[in-house]
Write a structure and sequence with these properties.
This protein has 327 residues and is mostly helical. It has helices at 2-30, 33-41, 48-58, 74-77, 80-85, 103-138, 143-156, 160-174, 187-220, 224-231, 236-265, 268-274, 279-289, 292-320. It has a domain at 110-291: MetI-like fold (Orthogonal Bundle), CATH 1.10.3720. The chain contains 14 helices and no strands.
Length: 327
């Protein structure tokens, strides 16, 4: 098991390095430091001296990959690539381009607020999705299954923006059951502000989650081992929960990978519309301010979380099916 985990972790470094190089090329070749300086200082009446001072203040005055004016290892370390990209591997995100605040401190401060929203959405949505998927598989090819599919397709066809606006109008303005937006501290006071975004997040993910899980269950219950279990006299409930559910967990675990970065990085629209000071709100504000240091750090952090989730899922595969570790 340990060798399998080490092998999977070793595979992750070339992927993250490739992501790092792609990010650097995108931010420092397509968009040069001079352009970044003008965008932060203002396009009009910006002197070359102001641009150079801004670049020096933010560390963008260095060469991109190779510094011929230095000696030894400094030829590589005193470069934009080393200072701005390679330091991301030790989670040194540097400072914001717009206000010089430490990005790492802002991330640590904002991640808990994102988790307050995303973890309930993830857990409640996954539980409800599994229950209704098993229900659809149990009543497959009946009116219950057909009605559930119609509801899922209908819910999948509605954009998240419409869910947010309809939820705020109906539950907050008309029924006055929850605040329309905002956030408060401590957590027990903030719970009333989290109810509405959590409900909207669960409803928005309901259709796609149920349809995916239903497809997996229908594929499993038509396999030979399920037919053998039925031939032995087991009831349909026992077949679904004791046999099909366990084997269906491998593809279901794969779908969890998509949700793991979302837990940490937050939901952009939900946090922005409901005034939650999480990671999604932080990223949206950085895009509006054209703060490329924050955007670059958040993209790399998302890739690290995604790759880490892939490794966790690979390890979880071995718990469900030990044969996987031999591959």
């Amino acid at each position: 098991m340990l060798a399998y985990i080490i092998r999977r972790v070793a595979y992750a470094f070339p992927i993250l390095f490739g992501v790092n190089v792609a990010l650097f090329s995108l931010f420092f070749f397509v968009n040069s430091p001079d352009v970044m300086a003008r965008q932060n200082l203002g396009e009009k009446r910006v002197t070359p001296e102001q641009i150079e001072n801004w670049k020096r203040e933010h560390g963008y005055h260095l060469p991109r990959f190779f510094n011929a004016g230095e000696t030894g290892w400094s030829k590589l370390t005193q470069t934009i690539f080393w200072q701005k990209s390679m330091r991301l591997f030790i989670f040194d995100f540097g400072k914001s381009d717009s206000d010089n605040s430490r990005i790492g401190e802002a991330v640590c401060r904002r991640v808990p607020y994102s988790l307050f929203v995303t973890i309930p959405i993830f857990l409640i949505g996954m539980a409800i999705g599994l229950v209704f998927a098993v229900l659809a598989a149990f009543y497959r090819a009946t009116y219950i299954d057909a009605a559930l599919l119609v509801v899922c397709v209908f819910l999948m066809s509605i954009p998240l923006m419409l869910y947010i606006l309809a939820g705020q109008y109906l539950l907050a303005i008309v029924l006055k059951l929850t605040p329309i937006s905002g956030f408060a501290r401590p957590l027990w006071i903030a719970l009333k502000f989290l109810v509405l975004p959590v409900i909207i997040g669960v409803v928005a993910e309901f259709g796609s989650g149920v349809r995916y899980d239903r497809t997996i269950f229908l594929e499993e219950i038509n396999k030979d081992y399920v037919r053998t279990a039925r031939a032995k006299g087991l009831g349909e409930v026992a077949v679904l929960f004791k046999h099909a559910l366990k084997n269906a967990m491998i593809p279901i675990l794969t779908s969890v990978v998509v949700a793991v970065p979302f837990l940490m990085t937050g939901s952009l629209l939900l946090e922005k519309f409901f005034g939650i000071p999480g990671m999604g709100n932080y990223l949206i504000d950085a895009i509006h301010r054209q703060d490329f240091a924050i955007v670059r750090a958040m993209v790399f952090l998302g890739s690290v979380l995604y790759v880490g989730a892939l490794i966790a899922v690979d390890v979880s595969y071995t718990l469900v099916d030990p044969r996987v570790r031999l591959k």
